[in-house]
Amino acid sequence: MSGQHETYSEQNNGSTSKGERTNLARRHVDDFWSWIHEKNGVFSIRSAYSMLVNTKMRREAWLEGRANSSDTDRESKSLEKLWKVNVLPKVKIFLWRLAQQSIPTTGLLHHRNMSTSTRCGLCGAEDSWKHSLLHCTVARCVWALQDLDLVEALNNTTEPDARIWLFVLLDMLSPTEFTQVAVTILALWHSRRQTLHENIFQSPLSTHNFISKYIREIEECRPKMTQGTENPIPVQMQTRWVPPPPGVAKVRVDGATARNTLDGLFSDVCRDDTELFLGASVIKMPGVVDPATLGALACREALALASDLHISRVVIASDCQGVIRDIKEGTGGLYASTIKEVNETARDFDQCTFIFEGRLTNIEAHSLAKNAFRLDYGRHLWLINPPDIHCIPMNFYD
Predict the structure, then answer these.
(1) What is the domain partition of the chain in residue ranges?
(2) Per-residue pLDDT of the chain (398 residues; tens, 9 = 90+)
(3) What is the model's pTM?
(4) Contacts by 25-28 with C-beta closer than 8 Å and gap 24+?
(5) Which among 227, 238, 322, 369 could bridge 256 via Cys, Cβ 3.0 to 4.6 Å?
(6) Helix/strand/coil (H, E, C) string of the chain?
(7) Which CATH class is domain 4-31+241-383?
């Protein structure tokens, strides 16, 4: 058997269309109250008062057509964080100008009656900050040389406003990744200006080499670790398989969202302590795009996969640190019911441990999640042989 598909309509005893709400529970869990304005789901007067004040201010701002104070405070904090990025001042100034939407693209110049055209001077498409830095032919050639996961994160961030786009990346990316993005967009802009105004063309490879050299110099200028501090694990060591204890199986989980649709997906790959493949599963569902919720559902599916494989001792590894913390603390907020179900199901095993592992040790589940969106909605199961991410089989029960 190479794959198996179970639709949610069969699990829910009724048809489930894309616009309807899907029942996410797999086992009977008693209903309970959860307050979404607190991380632990417990009501507090402080959070209730804060919710009422914020609601009042948002409604007043909407009626008066102005930005509310919570948005202003959030933007101020994000701008402060933007100025603390570990790059040269000229990069910070460029990021600030981008956040203010003041870099002189052809589209902006036309909007200010300073240009008669809105077309890109390099490829002829409609010009904007996003086109110049991400979607132009030259920009795409440079991004194609960058890290694949970083480029995917940029493509998944579809904010049209440059300021919000930067703030989202600040929260989503690590400091090293954001530094790489900042240096890359400045290098792209500088190369673009040289081509348009000085007729000096710089190849994408030259731009990529400049970016790599700049980031390497930043790393060399950072303070070295003092003696007595534990040496960091080299990157080549982090990418290796981290085996579980003898006699224990390990399930690595990951979640992903589609780029152009409101579809969510999570994958699980199970191997024993000798790295022998035991099984894998993927669940694709509509309307679930919150990363933390997908991470919690992936942990729940890992328990279901281990149960299907008759495994009694299991370690579940996820790169979503917040979900692992919520499972251990029994919290969860919006996905508290899933966390409660995970903890109750975990008691059925002789040994069940949830651990956090970085993405570099979770490449198999991450690659499966990225390449499984061509499948239909429902559960897909692989036994005996691992799934081929380049040729994932379609459902043969339909």
Answers:
(1) 4-31+241-383, 69-220
(2) 444 444 333 333 333 333 344 445 566 667 777 787 776 778 888 888 888 887 887 777 677 665 544 455 566 677 778 888 888 888 999 998 998 888 999 888 888 888 888 899 888 889 999 999 999 998 999 998 888 878 888 887 877 888 888 888 887 888 888 888 999 999 999 999 989 888 888 888 888 888 888 888 877 776 554 444 444 444 443 446 788 999 999 999 998 887 667 888 999 999 999 989 999 999 999 988 888 889 999 999 999 999 999 999 999 999 888 889 889 988 766 788 889 899 999 999 999 999 998 877 778 888 888 888 888 899 999 988 888 765 444 333 33
(3) 0.49
(4) 25/337, 25/341, 26/300, 26/304, 26/341, 26/345, 27/341, 27/344, 27/345
(5) 369
(6) CCCEEECHHHHHCCCCCCCCCCCCCCCCCCCCCCCCCCCCCCCCHHHHHHHHHHHHHHHHHHHHCCCCHHHHHHHHHHHHHHHCCCCCHHHHHHHHHHHCCCCCCHHHHHHCCCCCCCECCCCCCECCHHHHHHHCHHHHHHHCCCCHHHHHHHHHCCCCCHHHHHHHHHHHCCHHHHHHHHHHHHHHHHHHHHHHHHCCCCCHHHHHHHHHHHHHHHHHHCCCCCCCCCCCCCHHHHCCCCCCCCCCEEEEEEEEECCCCCEEEEEEEEECCCCCEEEEEEEEEECCCCHHHHHHHHHHHHHHHHHHCCCCEEEEEECCHHHHHHHHHCCCHHHHHHHHHHHHHHCCCCEEEEEECCHHHCHHHHHHHHHCCCCCCEEEEEECCCCCCCCCCCCCCC
(7) alpha beta
Place of tokens 């690595």: 252
Token digits of residue 393:
């089989």
